[in-house]
Structure formats: structure tokens, C-alpha cells
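User: Hey, quick favor. My workstation is busy. Could you predict this chain's structure for me?
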Amino acid sequence: MNAIVPIKLDCSTCPARAVAACGTCADTSKKTLNRISTKRKIAAHSTILHAGDTPKYLKTIVRGVVASIALLGDGRTQILSLHFKGDIIGKTLDTPYVHEFVAMTDVELCLKPRTEFSRLIDDDKGLRYAFLNDADLTLEQSRTWMIALGRKNARERVATFLTFLVSRGVGKRAAPHKNLELKLPLTRVEIGDFLGMSLETVSRQFSALRKAGIIDGKGREIEILDIKGLLAEACEDDSRILW
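Assistant: No problem, here it is.
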């Protein structure tokens, strides 16, 4: 059930606090957030915001992955951006959304009324800086995919996608110095929608990276065997990777 659940919040115990913009709030702002915020759980593949909706809330992702998706007139879709734990979706301007936001996995959101959160941004310098930084990261992501779609070949795009997930902290290690393990938040079809490729092409590129000894695993469970090799395939440096 995708209903808003009005429960008492405690920002100090929020799983996203360390990476969320609202984690930088002053004590007085945190008290306000505890008072105005509500939580909502969204099932995977449910639409969170429709194109044409008017902004009522800004939403911090507490758990899960959300995609911004453009719908073409002939039914095709294009994933424009991915948003992870700590990211804010929504906007402070009172203008309708142009694209949809869809839960790619089961998602938990923290909802803050737009008008009240906007006032907090105006009054709290730390929150304002963190919010603008969050918006800048989203813009940088858009630039990354503009380059990938405009100039990179299929193998480079898939490698870029995997390094992007690593840079957003999706991967984990079973133990220190072990290989990085990724649980992909998208299916092969959805990765194709993101990278502008067919399912067959996406699958071929994953197979090629496995044969090259760069990754291992099948389905959504991927193991990065050679992170430097993956970066080379993506034509990226390691400045954005969280080791």
C-alpha cells in the first residue's frame, strides 16, 4: 500500500542522515523537520510523481532507488537520472513536473511539505548549501549521461553505468580487500532504457565484460573483479569512486 503514514520521526536515527542534505540542519531546523515530516513506503515499479503533478512535498530517499523517466508520445521511455539514499526528489518551485519519478526498487521516503521546507532552506544556511549541492550533483549526473549517450559506444556506456553505481555507494565488500559486490537496481531492460540500448546489446556488453575478466556474476548480482579495468573501459578516472 502506497499510503502516507503519519508517524513521529527522529532525524537522529534516520538511515539516510549521514548523506542527506537535511542531515546538516541546525538543531532548531531538525525540530521543525521532526514536526512536519511524514514517511511513505512505495512498492517497486510504482509511480511516485506523475508528469503534470503540482509539487506539494520534497521527498528525501531513506531507502531504495528512484528514477526520473521521460515518456515519449509513442510509448517509449527514457530514464533520465537515478536517485539514491539521501537524495531529494521534488522541487521548491510551484510549477508542474515535466517527467515522472518511479520507484525502481522498494522505496522509503521522508516527505516534507514544499512551502515549509522552502522556508527552512531560506533560514538555514547549512541546509541551503547542502540542498544546492544536491541539485548540483543531479546536474553533474545529467552531464555524465549526455556524454555517455552522445559520444560513448555500447561497452563504454555499460562500464560507465557500473562505475556510476560504485560512485554512489551501491557496492559493498564482504570483507576488506575483497572484490566489490553490486546488486543492480535495474533490470537489463531498464538499463537499456537508461543507456539508449536494446536488451540484446546490454546483455552482450555484460558478457563481454565478464569474458574480459572485469566483472563476474549473473542477473542483478555483479562482482567487480577489476575496478581499474572497469574505469578504463568507461573512459573515466577514479576521482568519483568511493573505495
